[in-house]
């Protein structure tokens, strides 16, 4: 006769898992969907370099905000702390998605190769966080999937090196083709696997 295992999950984690699952569904649909470009502040100018550097600067601003928001979520010890903390994570992710929507809706005819590479890099950051929240939801809703783990790990590892390398390689090709132009340099920052882009070459 097999011994029945009792899973005891604190109330704050039960609530966190439930709300996280709802948030992941909503944001995943937006991440992989096509925005209504009539509602997006798309860029229709010809200074494509300025626009892409502006989006890279967005990431540089949002990255530390997202790290701090995820840390705040991990510090929740009471059920009433959970919803505000999750809303903080959602707010930053939505800011990144807003920036992505601007890229999706902007023609950028002179950068057809770079556009999807930029979107891949931005989207990977969002996807890594959503994947971790989805895992939290699955463990809370189905504790038998935890493989005996007694601690729910909220650590988020953001591994965008591959996407960043592909985008940087394109930037270098573009730079050679257009002398006198420079995208922001690729910088490692904020820890947790973040790669941050921004600022003009000195």
Q: Would you give an account of this structure?
A:
The structure is a single chain. Helix 1 packs parallel to helix 3 (79-105), helix 2 runs antiparallel to helix 3 and helix 3 packs antiparallel against helix 4 (114-141). The chain has five helices and two strands, in the order H-H-H-H-H-E-E. With 202 residues, the chain is mostly helical. Helix content is 60%, strand content 3%. The chain has helices spanning 11-32, 48-74, 79-105, 114-141, 161-177, and strands at residues 186-188, 195-197. The chain has a two-stranded antiparallel sheet. The termini are far apart. The chain has a single domain (11-197), classed as A middle domain of Talin 1 (Up-down Bundle).
Keywords:
60% helix; mainly alpha; 202 residues; 5 helices; single chain; A middle domain of Talin 1; two-stranded antiparallel ribbon; disordered C terminus
Sketch the major β-sheet.
Answer: 2 strands, antiparallel
Secondary-structure element series: HHHHHEE
State the end-to-end CA separation. 71 Å
Q: How many DSSP H or I helices?
A: 5
State the name of the first-level CATH class: Mainly Alpha
Report the oligomer.
single chain
Low-confidence stretches: 185-202
Total beta-strand segments: 2
| Spatial strand order of the main sheet | 1-2
User: What is the beta-strand fraction?
Assistant: under 5%
CATH level-3 fold name:
A middle domain of Talin 1
Helicity level? 55-70%
Number of domains: 1
Please state the average pLDDT score: 80
The CATH architecture name reads Up-down Bundle
Q: Structural class of the secondary elements?
A: mainly alpha
In one word, what is the shape? elongated
Rg is 20 Å
